[in-house]
Specification:
Blueprint lengths: L7 H14 L2 H6 L1 E9 L2 E3 L2 H12 L2 E12 L2 E10 L5 E10 L2 E8 L3 H4 L6
Parallel strand pairs: 1-6
Antiparallel strand pairs: 1-2, 3-4, 4-5, 5-6
Length: 122
Amino acid sequence: MTATTATPAQVAAAYFETWRARDFAAFRALLADDATFSGPLGRAADADECVAGIKGMSQIVTDIVVDRIVADGADVITWFQLHTSLADPIPVANWSRVENGLITRIRVAFDARPLTSGPVSA
């Protein structure tokens, strides 16, 4: 699979595979230089900021479980469970735009309160 032959759904799947593997060089290769990110924990104005954000988030991420990837043309919605060291798994919706085999825009929606209110006690 190359960037020019990959479907938007395949690019989105690779995004999560490279994030889970903490392969940040491969993760970066999936992003257009001007890719943007917007979510409840931050924003990124370009691909390098996107990678920095994922690297930071990866410090607390213990797993990423993709439940469903749905593509409609260049738009891909990925529903996944974000497992972290701070909270029970959190359901997340990730909306990515894929153009010419690269992700150009990422929008994420989830309830961030479990991650911002401190450790969960057992």
